[in-house]
Amino acid sequence: MKSTTTARKNWYPLVVWGLCWFFGTVVSSCTAPAPQPYRIGFSQCTNGDAWRQAMLAGMKKELSFYPQATFHMKDAHDNSALQRQHIQEFLREGIDLLIVSANQAEPITPIVEEVFNRGIPVVILDRRTTSKLYTAYVGGNNLEVGQTAGAYASSLLHQHGSVLEILGEVGASPSIDRHRGFVQGLAAAPGVRLVAQVQGDWKRPSVVQALPAVLRAHPEVTLIFAHNDRMALGAHQVCKQLGLDRRIKVLGVDGLAGPQGGIQLVQDKVLAATLLYPTGGEEAIRTAMRILRQQPYDKENLLSTMVIDSTDVLTVKMQTEKLDQQQQDIQRQQGLLQAQLATYTNQQTVLYVLAASLLGAVALGVLAWRALRANRRITRKLAGQNGEIRTQRNQIQALAEQARVETEAKLRFFTNFSHELRTPLTLIMGPVEELLTSGGTLSAPQRHDLGLVRRNTQRLLQLVNQLLDFRKIDVGKMPVRATEGNLVAFVREIMDVFERPARQRGIALRFLPAEPSIRLWFDVNILDKVFFNLLSNALKFTPERGQITVSIQLVPAQHSVRVSVEDTGPGISAEDRAHIFEWFYQGHPSAAKGSGMGLALALGLVRLHQGELTFTSQPGQGTTFVVTLPQELPVALRSAGPPAPLLMLAEEVGPETTPNDAAAVRLSGKDNKALVLVIEDNAEVNAFLAQKLRAHFQVQTAADGATGLRLAAETIPDVVVCDVMMPGLSGLEVVAQLKGDWRTSHIPVVLLTARDAPEQQVEGVQAGADLYLTKPFNPTFLLENLRTLLSNQERQREHFRRELSVDTATVAPQRVDQKFLGDLTAIVEANLDNSNLSVEDIAHRLGISRVQLYRKVKALLGTGVTDFVQGIRLTKARQQLLDTELTIAEVAYRLGFSSPSYFSATFKAKYHISPSEFRALHTTPNV
């Protein structure tokens, strides 16, 4: 009986596995990989004539063989500016390949080069650009078309006669090449002369209007060559009206099929002949797909031409009609194929559903049977455990909630404690730094005492920072943000800080890396504190004339890097070794030289970095601390951004820094025109900041956020210095409201705070702050940062002025300041012809006062409102002076100047050239 049960247990999994394999095979055999989708954009110069429509039809016909390709055409309607806009829209929409038929070569060339330089393939169709930056060209050989037309015209005239040429649009590459080829073709017959030309635009009406006068001036013309069949038809109509249709023969280009095409016109004897000019639509799509599929292709794809005259017009027409009939048959077959594919897809879906349902039913049946048997055995066991688990869960939840509340209370305590310490430290370090760097007459003992105060203040700040780091590690609030870097260069940079104090004590500081460069992922700020504490500890316990050796080596077998710090100090006693990494442990009183936090903090940070910190020591010979770091870190600990800046601890590691080193900071120069608003709730810090800044700026102060906001809106200061933690409105709320109000959105804001955690700094920057300084801070550093912000603000003004002087179109409202300038510019442009437009009118339209408008424009552009309006008018004047149909007086009155003489004087004062001289310099007379 037992063997039978075992056999059944082994049989059921085999059945389930067999069914899974069978249905998996069926599904995989029916599944085919989907072809890769492609997005093709087509910028057409115009789709308003039969030849261009035939091109589009050929492209769609060829696209029917590539269902995975999506195709979108934009019609520029013979407008080069609109065509450039269409291509820019294609870039924003995201395309895999661009096909372009340029309206005019030169205006379209820059945007086509930009598309090519972005790595997007470009296929030039029919009309070339002036650049070689494209992937492939598809089109007829217009030079060959012209040469063939010239040769045929010479043969038709029996090598003697006068010819008139009707050109295409000015600047179009087909027109240029066809004319050049036609002249070359006529050169073989000296008796045939090109006596006249008519400039057309590819359309019949332009020829009907201009040709009669030319024919009257040249009655000797016996043949007309038009660059396309539409203009050739217009030439025939003119000849018929003048009674010259029997004497003058007309040649065209295109050779399209259909009732209005060139083939029909030859058959009706309207045209003597037409030259076949293939549209190239099918070939353009075939070339594009070869490029997208990374198959071989030719960069130059020139399509051949032929002459269609009365000798072969019937043959060509029959072949064309036969091809059209075959294409219709292909389309019908494709329709039937699509219907069959839809039916196949539906049947395939039904098969998948049935297979999945059957497999699921079998699997569920087996699982249900086995689960039923197991459930009976387990239910009784679980019933007895559920009560115990519920009791334990409730206890754990209660303990977890209690621990969470206690942790949050501790974290708040240490944060508030840090803030309370940093504020008085600011008032201590600020005056001390000012005295040491001012270069005043201080005696040597006074400088020594001030240096002692500074070092001990910095040491107190270090202890505060270590306490915060201790709490962050304890509650898991310190993240690892590793970046890839050179560990050798990083450690060498830290050792440079200890070079001077070690030299003054006669201690040899040696650095022995096994390789010149060892790259791995590590957090700069975390390892900076680790190695700084280890080196500082070694420096404290190494006697004079001793030695500190730092070595780095790879351990390939363990996929790690080992950094050791070895000193020649007294070593660690056996009694202290077990407690050396405990918080606040200082060892034997005779050996205590610190706070007892450095090594404990280093151990916590190394473990946070998934490394190890160990040590070996021999009394009387020294101690060696070894940091072992993994070569690879999990992706979750890696940062995608650039390496964070090296954050050295503020504590001095050696004797007093010489005053000359600190005095190198620039203190010269005054900026009395700039207004600084100080918002600080601590009266002493407020007064200290005002005192230090008044020597260089105009200063206003506020004791709370609400008062600061009111003063900012009333006075429009040049920069705001604000504390973060204030009663009522916090500094972050003040920043958000300043940046959200268009009156004050341009003002740079400096936040001062004791909150130095990275996430808190990010919070300040996200609120809109331009600079985030932690207390205590160096007053000279604050002063130089304010100067830098004011300098950047001036450069921003110059940027806005340049942007508005190049193009007076409304600035895109991406920011509050740009939205304001956009609205202001729109109002001025809408009233350019209003000579009575005043500052009050503009302010009224914007819904603000005259004073507020003046201050805002002055702050953003560094100029007055009147000068801003005058600048826009003069910029528009430069554009309109290029239109020679307008007189200078008309330009002046259009732009709101009271008189032409005032306009000329204002224009010359800005551009150092009169309007008439500007026009003569930038325009050429029509030929």
What does this structure look like?
The chain is an alpha/beta fold and 927 residues long. Helices cover 54% and strands 15% of the residues. It has 29 helices and 24 strands. The strands form five sheets. The chain has a six-stranded parallel sheet with strand order 2-1-3-4-5-11, sandwiched between helices. Strands 7-6-8-9-10-12 form a six-stranded mixed sheet, sandwiched between helices. A five-stranded mixed sheet has the order 14-16-17-19-18. The chain is extended, with a radius of gyration of 42 Å. The N terminus is likely disordered.
Task: Characterize the main sheet.
Answer: 6 strands, parallel
| Fraction in beta strands | 5-15%
Q: Looking across the biggest beta sheet, what order are the strands in? A: 2-1-3-4-5-11
Which ranges are low-confidence, i.e. pLDDT below 50, for 5 or more consecutive residues? 1-5, 644-671, 806-814
What is the CATH architecture descriptor of the largest domain? Answer: 2-Layer Sandwich
Q: Which topology of the largest domain does CATH recognise? A: Heat Shock Protein 90
- Assign the structural class, choosing from mainly alpha, mainly beta, alpha/beta, alpha+beta, or little secondary structure: alpha/beta
Q: Quick one: how many beta strands?
A: 24
Mean pLDDT: 80
Shape: extended
Radius of gyration: 42 Å
The CATH H-level homologous superfamily of the largest domain: Histidine kinase-like ATPase, C-terminal domain
Distance between the termini: 113 Å
Supply the number of helical segments.
29
The structural domain count equals 5
